[in-house]
Structure formats: C-alpha cells, structure tokens
Specification:
By secondary structure, the chain is α+β, with helices and mostly antiparallel strands. 26% of the residues lie in helices and 13% in strands. The protein has one domain: Ribosomal Protein L30, Chain: A (2-Layer Sandwich), CATH 3.30.1390. The protein is elongated. 27% of the residues are buried.
Amino acid sequence: MEQPRVQPGTVEQPRPATQSRTPHAWNVVLLDDNDHSYDYVIRMMQELFKLPQERAFRVARAVDKRGRAVCCTTHKELAELKRDQIHSFGRDPLIPTSAGSMSAVIEPAQDDEDGRDENGRHRDGRDRDGQDGERGRDDHPGKDARP
C-alpha cells in the first residue's frame, strides 16, 4: 500500500472532529385531546412515570389548561420509550367517547446559558436553589406558551 506523500517542511493539520448537535436531553410532552379524564391522566402518570398523586394531578391540570404538559426530561431513548408507553396506555374507561390512548411527542429540552433546562433545573438534576431534585417538571407549559 502506498503511503500518502507529505511535502518536506509542511505540517499536516488535524481534521476537526465533527460535533454532534443532537440534544442530550428531551422532554416528553403530553398533548390534550378532551377525550380523557383527570383520573386517567393521573393514573397514567403514576403508573408510567411513578409520580406522586399531587404531581400527577398538576400534569392533568396543565394539559387541560394549556393543551400540553412536560411529563419528564430525560435522554432520547427513554423519552421515546415513555412516549410510546403513553401511546399504548389504552382508552379511558370513564369517557364513553374515548377511542384510544392520549398523544405525546418528544422535543429537545432547551438549555439556557448557565446549563439549566427550560424547567430551571441543572442538567445534573439540581433545582434552582442547587438542591438535588427530580428531573423534569410536570406543569411546564412548553416553549409555545412562555411569557
């Protein structure tokens, strides 16, 4: 095999590594459809996301009032799994017109300049006060409803 030729006195410049712009954190966003009860959303949040009842209620209230709610912020693979679990959770037995599961999407979580996500939490899980906290916030309105 022939070696590449380099001119004497020249220095081969290293090639810059291609940087991936893939976000490292993703939001799982529950979308409202008016075919599911608060009880359904609360039960789903408790079963799929292991949220306590108060937080699960806040998700139900946020999705009802704003049309969407961030359920959790996590890495992409887990966000995709949680979205798929929402899609397969089934119909709401309390609503006769409910034809199936709720909808959800995943969206890149937005970082601000000091390494916090759009919920004000550091990427390492600390909250605004620097205390350890749970990842994600259940009643975040999403980027289209910011003040």
